[in-house]
């Protein structure tokens, strides 16, 4: 009985002794027993090899615990991520998951997650960090002129706005080719343009004009330096302004297809409605031209004209269509 | 990754002519709204790095981060001090290897990525270009630090009869004396690294090469038609640096006989050589005094290094030092030379360690020193400056003065003073002593706070430090933290220090604790067991085995406890009677008479004196069937 029991113990003991599951750091054989002086400095640098066990290899050095475990709850995060650095899983104490989940799974965890490393992160620009940066940068700033306290005043006194971007990154070179781009924004209402000039300007700039905000944006990046791009943008603005005021002889050949907006006079719609009305009131009581004039003056016809112009110039909407319908009914007396 | 920062500016008209017209128009119509004049302030100008420096000032030290040169990854950061050294050395050697490749293949590395230009990244010329026998070739060899080649070139020049200028000769002599007539170790070739022996810095002398008789420097020196003070200076300093002290003094006599006046460097070197030339303290002091007088006569103004070397020489003169060091300080003040950290370090050592009586009254000196230095920023002026902090902290530790310890540490935290903590060895000494002082004197909460702040980012505690921490935990009855400390011990690589582990186990097993604490202790004990299990060479000891068993029993892990008993048998260790009786109690709780019988048989096998008692108890408390009787 006892011997059987001991055999059982032996086998259990063996599995215990040769068990894995605990990994440790390397370099054990050269340790001395405890010294008062830092013992590590007396040891050899190259760890001794072999003689560790039957395999003769050192057990693999496992991972230490990530330093998020040691982080205090009230630590200063701005010191942990002071500058833009890639995501480090063992330095960010958040349980993030990212990635496409495999079938019936969840997104992979943050440890060793390439997706989290690839994307740009803003861990270095938390609100606390931005507050601190602003405080530190205040000595470099001058005061805002007290007279410019509303946006409207700024717009009217300084209508042209220039925007450019500076880039900072860690690397052997401080130059960044994207830093040469200059955006110049100006409101067309602040430029002195009459109707013809405005239309010509809009045709010249095309896409660069935003109708909703009435801002013309010129982006220059064709020159290698920012100063050159700025000069070029100014030059473009000047040229556009002067050119839009000039009237070229060939502009007289502007056809109906070149017009920017629809005008009802002399259009097919006018012709059509007048023909229709004439035919309705077929009892010709006089000259056609006079009748046409008379018809044009009539209220329903004017209303019809308005509704057609609204439909064509603005986007078709419920109300516009209804108005058109009403106008047509009134004109045709249906 | 780029961090764009927007720079939005309102354009102030400079170029756009039409804009001026426009603005005037606008002014005309809308000026009625505001009568204030728009004053646009002048733009400030600043240094190129000023903005970056301002932003950097918002960042403090991250207490859990490893030194910046390591990869911040849980696999790749060094966890023990051995790893720290290994990693930093491997990084340096990698860098040296890279530099070696860049320098030996300069044609492959011609493209310059850096803007603005960084000279360090471009290949340096290490190969000699000039081959003909000329003075320029000699200068080139000198600037590339090729000692033997330079000497050869010089000899060839002399043979060919070309005169070598005095300037070049000075440089050549400086070169030879600095490197003791041997070529300095080149980058990228394998180097023997210096080992630090615990016996102190005298051991380092054995690694330096010794000045040989009649080596190239002396030969060239003797060949010189005229020798001026600078040649003498080079030779004397070289001799002192490489151990030929007596010769240095002889040469100095020579110099005096030639009616030349020595410069301050010669005197510094000679003063530092005094302890090796004279053996008795009186003679040493006399020699130093004589040298100083001569310095005075020759109207050579002493500098900081002079006084520091006097103090350093005095360190070896024990009792004399106490008398004379205040005088030296006064002289320094009179001359207007501010003492550096090395000065203070010498003084502290003199007063505390070299004199016979050193007691609490002497702490006043340290207090005065710290008060004077409070809030000052230091730069390194003397190679021995780095020893100050370690010595100061040692003093605080020996005298168990916590206040002064904090003061010293606050001095370290001023500005850039952390650079004066020295290399990793000195830094480890400083922080190790500071931590020991805290463990001895402070409340456990403060100790733990500091522990989390400096371990392991600044300090890898040695086993003695961990023992002190365990003591502190014990004193303040925070033994429930022991499992976390065990984890730290494991990651620091101290889990193979038998006595440390045994102390940990004994602390855990000593008293009964609450249930969940016992659970954690039991888990810890199992961990310890598996650590021991993986190490076939290390021996178990009886006490550790019994501690582990007790812990497992207390947490009711019976099966594992039985395994421990088996281990006892394997390793030929005898469990104590108390252990077996507690086993018996546990068996009773779990009502396994089978086990009880085995227990008795085991104890009989070990022939313990308590066997009959155990047998009696078993009979009394269990219901055994006949077979088991």
TrEMBL record, chain A:
Residues 62-71 have a biased composition (Basic and acidic residues). PANTHER family: MITOCHONDRIAL 28S RIBOSOMAL PROTEIN S28, SMALL RIBOSOMAL SUBUNIT PROTEIN MS35. GO terms for cellular component: mitochondrial small ribosomal subunit. Residues 38-71 are annotated as: Disordered. GO terms for molecular function: structural constituent of ribosome. It comes from the Eukaryota. This is Mitochondrial ribosomal protein S35. Residues 159-245 form the Small ribosomal subunit protein mS35 mitochondrial conserved domain. GO terms for biological process: mitochondrial translation. InterPro entries: Ribosomal_mS35_mit, Ribosomal_mS35_mt.
Automatic annotation (TrEMBL), chain B:
PPR repeats lie at residues 228-262. GO terms for molecular function: ribosomal small subunit binding; rRNA binding. It is found in: Mitochondrion. InterPro entries: PPR_rpt (IPR002885), PTCD3 (IPR037387), Rib_mS39_PPR (IPR055063), TPR-like_helical_dom_sf (IPR011990). Keywords: Mitochondrion, Repeat, Ribonucleoprotein, Ribosomal protein, RNA-binding, rRNA-binding, Transit peptide, Translation regulation. GO terms for cellular component: mitochondrion; ribonucleoprotein complex; ribosome. One of its GO terms (biological process) is regulation of translation. It comes from the Eukaryota. Its main location: mitochondrion. Pfam families: PPR_3, Rib_mS39_PPR. The keyword Ribonucleoprotein applies. Belongs to the mitochondrion-specific ribosomal protein mS39 family. This is Small ribosomal subunit protein mS39. It comes from Poecilia formosa (Amazon molly).
